[in-house]
Design a protein that fits this description.
This protein is of the alpha/beta class and 389 residues long. The protein contains 13 helices and 14 strands. Helix 7 links the parallel strand 7 and strand 8. The chain binds pyridoxal-5'-phosphate.
């Protein structure tokens, strides 16, 4: 190893040592799916409270079947970007299906949610654009703002007065984009979409809402909280969570779709989604509108669980959905709780800064339709025992 390489490696080792000392070191674990809500983590069976597979579609036979069908028809790879030879027929039929479900003129599929946020926002902004992001926006949304030519700022979480206060003078900006999530990924609370729409309309801003954790679970036909609204310019969502597979979409006007096909690097310079994934997405869009009962059960279980946890004295923040944080504050307590739960047979990793704000380390519990009331009760008992320890 050269001296320069040695110094660089030492630099990264030092940074890792700081993370380790701060109890913030992350590590990969080997996961194998098991029956029902069980997964094997490094070979050990645990009840999974970390999955975003809210409707348990990742193992649904109809998704697997359509994936296999599409592999047989189109092969395993899409061969190129959608602008070259990658735009196989299912893309546009899925986009039409999705647009009809979302109630928008058009939709556009992109490889991942991270890529969509990081590149669509940058494509929509220039140096005369002000970008206003909710403070708790996902890292990919912030990356989109940071990598754009626009001037970005953050407003206090879900605080419309603060958003209004941050909106710059018309002389400084020609355009504004307001960015938020409909269901916040680490808190499970819901944005005030009516108030955001009113503010966007009043200031002539474009509203961009990330529906990663709402798609499949909330709204008309499970299509998210922006479904059927014509006052949200752009909604984005992922297929890797409640939709059970992978990929992302933008729901928007036909003009914005065409603009993104021309100007969005995440679409232009990236290999199109593979056929197997398109098959799973296509089947998920057929099934999700029919899953009203499962959605209702999921949200009722979440409500029941939240009230049990609150009754036991745990801080579940402002959660109103299937995502329930147990906010403990300091990193070591969060790690301790996660490891106690793991010993008791549950997988619910600690979430620490920088993923969440300083002083708000937590264990993030996400519920799926595979959880039974018995699982929830057993988890409550373990949480109570941890507290008593
Ligand atoms: C709110 C939010 N947006 C975007 C993403 C990224 O989506 P994907 O996993 O498809 O890259 C995530 C995933 O963690 C998310 O939670």
């Amino acid at each position: 190893m050269s001296a320069a390489m040695h110094d660089l490696t030492a630099h990264y080792s030092d940074l890792l040592a700081v993370r380790r000392n701060d109890a913030r070191l992350r590590a990969l674990r080997e996961i194998m799916p098991g029956p029902g809500a069980t997964i094997y983590v490094n070979g050990r069976p645990l009840i999974d409270f970390a999955s975003n597979d809210y409707l348990a579609l990742s193992t649904h036979p109809a998704l697997a079947q359509r994936s296999i069908e599409y592999i047989n028809r189109f092969g395993v790879g899409s061969t190129a970007s959608r602008l070259l030879s990658g735009n196989i027929a299912p893309f546009e039929s899925i986009e039409r299906k999705l647009a009809a479900l979302k109630g928008t003129e058009a939709a556009l599929l992109l490889p991942t949610g991270f890529q969509a946020n990081a590149t669509v926002i940058a494509a929509l902004s220039d140096n005369r654009t002000q970008i206003l992001c909710d403070k708790l926006s996902h890292q990919s949304l912030l990356l989109g703002a940071q990598s754009s030519e626009g001037r970005w700022t953050r407003f206090a979480h879900n605080d419309i007065d603060h958003l209004r206060h941050r909106i710059g003078a018309p002389s400084d900006f020609e355009r504004r984009i307001i960015i938020t999530e409909s269901v916040f990924s680490m808190d499970g609370d819901i944005a005030n979409i009516d108030a955001l729409c009113n503010t966007a309309t009043e200031f002539g801003a474009l509203l961009y809402i990330d529906e990663a954790h709402a798609t499949g679970v909330l709204g008309v036909c499970g299509m998210g909280l922006t479904a059927g609204r014509n006052d949200v310019a752009i909604s984005m969502g992922t297929f890797g969570k409640a939709c059970g597979s992978f990929g992302a979409y933008i729901a928007c006007t036909s003009e914005i779709r065409e603009y993104l096909i021309n100007f969005c690097g995440g679409l232009v310079y990236s290999t199109a989604l593979p056929p197997a994934v398109l098959g799973a997405i296509d089947a998920a869009l057929d099934i999700i509108p029919t899953m009203e009962k499962q959605r209702q059960m999921l949200l009722e279980n979440a409500e029941h669980f939240r009230s049990r946890l609150k009754h036991l004295g745990f801080d579940t923040g402002l959660s109103q959905t299937q995502i329930i944080p147990i906010i403990v504050g300091d990193d070591r307590s969060a790690v301790d709780l996660a490891s106690y739960l793991e010993d008791a047979g549950f997988f619910a990793p600690a979430i620490r800064p920088p993923t969440v704000p300083e002083g708000s380390a937590r264990v993030r519990l996400s519920l799926t339709t595979l959880h039974t009331r018995e699982h929830l009760e057993r988890l409550c008992t373990s949480m109570r025992n941890w507290r008593a320890n």
